[in-house]
Amino acid sequence: MFVLILAFGCVAAVLPVLASRIGRGVFYVAAAVPAAAFIWGVGAYGQISDSGPLLEQAAWVPQLGLTLGLRFDGFAFLMLSLVAGIGVLVFLYAGSYFHAEPIIGRFAATLLLFSGSMVGLVLADNLLALFLFWELTSITSYLLISIEDEKTAARSGAMQALLITGMGGLAMLGGFVLLGEAAGTYSMAELLARPPSGSVVNFALVLVLIGAFTKSAQVPFHSWLPRAMNAPTPVSSYLHSATMVTAGVYLVARFTPAFADYRLWRPLVISFGLASMLIGAYRSLRQHDLKLLLAYGTISQLGLMMLLFGVGTKESIFAGCTLLLAHGIFKAALFMLVGIIDHQSKTRDLRKLDRLGAQWPVVAATAGVVAASMAGIPPLFGFLAKEEALGALGETGFAWGVPVLIGVVIGSSFTVAYSARF
To answer: How many CA atoms lie within 13 A of 199 on its CB side?
Structure first.
């Protein structure tokens, strides 16, 4: 696993040099790394099915007794498959999206570094190592959003994303330190197997949730995501669908089995998730720019994922995993389609795209199918995810289950409406 993560950095280091020789072909070279990670994950999954999670450790700061631990289990396999699988497609897409721009070497290298940081994040077992990879995703995302640095909107959007997610990351670090000291270990597996108790733990969990909410653009920390839409489309289709924005959801999913019954965890996660789902979906209905429509829709879908994982039942966690996978697939595809539409028509304004179906029937038909999946229309994957979600929320057995279910039904209706607008 260490070799796998290092491969991303090593290949990224040579991409700018290669770009001067092979141009946009550098994206196809870069695609080989997440492809190898995906293949490794599929092979390793068969191994963990028989013998349990894979563990690797290396001395990190021996003076403090800290080790860098990596752990590959079923949930890590799901996230690795999403990060690496979508990554391959995005690199291939970028090879057609860009032409002879001078930024392609720098862009490909930074995108590959981001991909490697996400792989490290989902494999990290040590809390401090997780924080390190967490911040690396923030830094590389800043570089990617502002890659066209001649654009003021891109620079300001990148800075806002870095500040909000960076400050959330520092809060999360404080929570990790408090939890690690209370538990006597910084191993996430050991911490979750034997969670500590006490008033300081509740405070630590609030700090952890601040980090998760800022990273996954939950209301009221969501403003950075729409402004990040100034980035090139490959950035949006990767960072803002299947990877960076799901990091907070991933963290909540990891912590919920151990901390769901703690006093503040479930109420906070469900409240923020439901508010984000409803507000994001409503704001999406009011957008005319296709990327902004998808951005607010992403906030809404991330809110639903947060809510499902926050409920903490076996059924809701399974539904959350299903939606996580479905969302990564259909949202990445939709962002790529927006890039194609923008390139062909020179606009993303819905009011100016009324003849799209006649001009580009294949693009329009593909967009219709993928948007239908986002809306939850049977028999598409999005329908299966939404059906699992509604079924899980209807069987919670909690007093607040019915009001939350009603809120989710309203939010899902909004989702159908903004999907139809797309």
So the answer is: 0
